[in-house]
Amino acid sequence: MIEDRRVLEKLNESLKNNRSVATVTIVESSDFTPRGTGSMMLVDEEGVILEGTIGGGLIEETARQDAVNCLLKNESKLISYTLNENSKNDNALPMACGGNASLFIKVYNSQDKLIIAGGGHIAVKLAAMAHILGYSISILDNREERLNDQLFPQVDNLILGNIADTIKDINIDKNTYIIIVTHGHKFDQDVLEAVVESKARYIGMIGSKKKVNTVFKSLLEKGYDKEKISKVYSPIGLDLGGETPEEISLSILAEMQAVKHAKDAPYLYKNRWDI
Predict the structure, then answer these.
(1) Nearby residues of 9 by Cβ (< 8 Å), 6 or more positions away
(2) How far apart are CA 72 and CA 145, in angstroms?
(3) Are the C-beta atoms of residues 24 and 41 closer than 8 Å to each other?
(4) Cα–Cα distance measured from residue 157 to residue 155, given in angstroms and rounded to the nearest whole number
(5) Which DSSP category does 15 fall into?
(6) Nearest partner of 195 among 269, 129, 115, 262, judged by Cα
(7) pTM for this one?
(8) Which stretches within the chain are classed as H helix?
(9) Options 3.40.50.1820, 3.40.50.720, 3.30.70.250, 2.40.50.140; which CATH number does 113-271 get?
(10) pLDDT tens-place string over residues 94-105
C-alpha cells in the first residue's frame, strides 16, 4: 500500500510538471513470477524508473523498454510475458520462473505545448484557436504593450524580453510546437537559430519563399544542420487560401494538427525553393 501510494504521488507530481510518464501494472499473474498482481512502477520517456518495481531483472527491464515505446507512440496497451527460458512463444523471456504475467502500460503524455514567438495579430487569433484544442500556450515578445490579458485572455504564459533569449529558457520537448511570427525578419531568424536543433515536434516560420530562402541560406553558412533546417515548416501553413489573420491562423493550426497526426496535407513548405 505504501509503495502504491508512492507511485501515485510521483505520477501526480509528474502530471503537475507536464512530464510524460507511464504506469506499468501487473494485472494478472500465474505460477511463479517475481511479483504478483497489482505490483506497479512508473517510467518516464527516457526509460528512467521513477518509482516502484514489478520485480526487477529481465521482466522489469523488458517492461521498461516497452513503456518507453508506448510513450513514443502515445499508446496504452496490454502486454503478456511467458517467463520460461525453454518456451518458444514470441513473448517468452529467458527466465527460470516458469510463470506468466500480463502487464498494462498506461501512458500519460504531457500536454501539447505551443510557443508563439511574437505577439502580433496572427498570434492573437492563433492562441484563441489553439486554446480550444487544449494546447498549453506561451507568447513571447519584446513589446510590453502586446503582452496583456486583454489580447491573450486564455494564455498560460506571457513572456517579455528578447525572444531569442527567453525561448532558450523554455523546456522544449517532443510535444512542443513552435510558431515564429515576430515583427521583424531579423527577429525571426534569431529565434529560428535558437530552436532549429531542439526536440520540438513542429517548428513553423512565417514568410515568403524569398525570405525563407534568405534565412535558410544564412543558417547554413553559420553551420547549422541542413537536415534539421529542411524540416522547418516555412512558408508556414496549409494551402487553404485566404490572407486575413484568422485565415492564416487557421491554416497554421491545421498544419500543426496534420503533423501531430502524421497526415499528408497541402503543405505550403513543399513548394519552396530547395536549400
Answers:
(1) 51
(2) 40
(3) yes
(4) 6
(5) H
(6) 115
(7) 0.76
(8) 2-16, 57-73, 121-132, 163-166, 185-195, 209-221, 226-230, 245-260
(9) 3.40.50.720
(10) 555 657 778 999
